[in-house]
Write a structure and sequence with these properties.
- This protein is mainly beta and 282 residues long.
- It has a domain at 6-25 and 32-39 and 71-235: Peptidase G1 (Jelly Rolls).
- The protein is built from one helix and 21 strands.
- It has one helix at 6-18; strands spanning 41-42, 56-60, 63-69, 78-84, 94-95, 98-103, 112-121, 124-133, 139-140, 151-160, 163-170, 175-182, 189-195, 198-199, 202-203, 212-214, 218-220, 229-231, 240-247, 254-258, 268-272.
- The strands form three sheets. Strands 1, 2, 3, 5, 6, 7, 8, 9, 13, 16, 19, 20 and 21 form a 13-stranded mixed sheet that branches. Strands 12-11-10-4-17-18 form a six-stranded antiparallel sheet, with no helix packed on it.
- β11 and β12 form a beta hairpin.
- The longest helix is centred in the first third of the chain and has 13 residues, at 6-18.
- The chain is globular, with a radius of gyration of 17 Å.
- It starts with 5 loop residues before the first helix and ends in a 10-residue tail after the last strand.
Length: 282
């Protein structure tokens, strides 16, 4: 996640409050998510043993989850995933987290994505849905109230050449929102990610939440406008599946870990800490 469009955020805050969601009021201090979104690679912490499995293990300062990557431009044209919005632990200070699905951002500065956030702002839990294309600001989806425990779907798809549609569906409330934009992506990665964004040009503290399960996730390599979805953790021809662990600012400790892939290669769970949780049941 990059940074918020705060005109939209203020409108969204009022809409969320009207819908009864736990959220900061429109007058709350804005937080600007800057320079995030794409993966910030990190070296492996000393003493960490690579996990067994078919995925390539990588470390990042801001991402935890899975990404497929390839050098062939235009490979990935759509992605979707499902997760349950986690409850954030409220307390002192400010901590942030985002869960999303997207195309690009792994090894390049492009990224088209949508998802949800769960933040703690000085004891107030904030939940929002948003869309984003880098390098532009993230835009909160006005009128789409998000609550902890809601089951959501994030969908990103190229509906025609260089035209991208981003939609977040709240399957619990039956509501959805998003936008369609003109954008030239590289199409060289597809991912589902639990992220700590940058805020005011610095990496934020990761909000404390329960484990987040992404399942079932899928991607398409079909021509724009004609999707044919395949399991997210089953690598496309010529692509590498990367398992990504999040590390702290010093780079010496893992602070969020993905599980192994589930048995049908479309789901995984991310949990706080250095220990990988078990995969979800398929």
């Amino acid at each position: 996640m990059h940074r918020w469009s705060w005109v939209a955020a203020a409108v969204a805050s009022a809409a969320l409050a009207a819908g009864g969601a736990a959220t900061a009021p429109a007058s709350a201090e804005p937080h600007s998510h800057q320079g995030g979104g794409r993966m910030l690679a990190a070296p492996a912490p000393s003493g960490v043993t690579p996990a067994a499995g078919g995925a390539k293990e990588l470390f990042s300062f801001n991402w935890s989850g899975y990404a497929q990557s390839t050098s062939a431009g235009g490979t990935f044209t759509a992605a979707k995933d499902f997760w349950t919005v986690p409850a954030v632990t409220a307390g002192s200070g400010k901590q942030y987290s985002a869960d999303w699905v997207g195309i690009d951002g792994f090894g390049n500065a492009k990224l088209v994505q949508d998802g949800t956030e769960a933040d703690n702002i000085n004891g107030t839990a904030v939940y929002r849905a948003w869309t984003e294309i880098l390098p532009a600001s993230a835009v909160v989806i006005s009128g789409l109230a998000i609550h902890p425990g809601d089951r959501v779907e994030g969908l990103v798809q190229e509906i025609s050449a260089n035209t991208w549609q981003m939609t977040v569906f709240d399957l619990t409330t039956g509501k959805s929102g998003g936008r369609t934009v003109g954008y030239t992506a590289k199409g060289t990665s597809v991912e589902a990610i639990h992220e700590r964004p940058q805020v005011n040009r610095s990496l934020a503290a990761l909000a404390k939440t329960g484990p987040v399960t992404f399942d079932p996730g899928s991607y398409s390599t079909a021509a724009p406008g004609s999707t044919s979805f395949k399991p997210l953790l089953s690598a496309a021809s010529g692509a590498t599946l990367n398992e990504i662990f999040m590390v702290n600012n010093a780079g010496n400790a893992v602070i969020a870990s993905p599980s192994p892939a589930d048995s049908d290669s479309d789901g995984f769970t991310v949990a706080d800490g250095p220990t990988s949780p078990p995969p979800p049941g398929s």
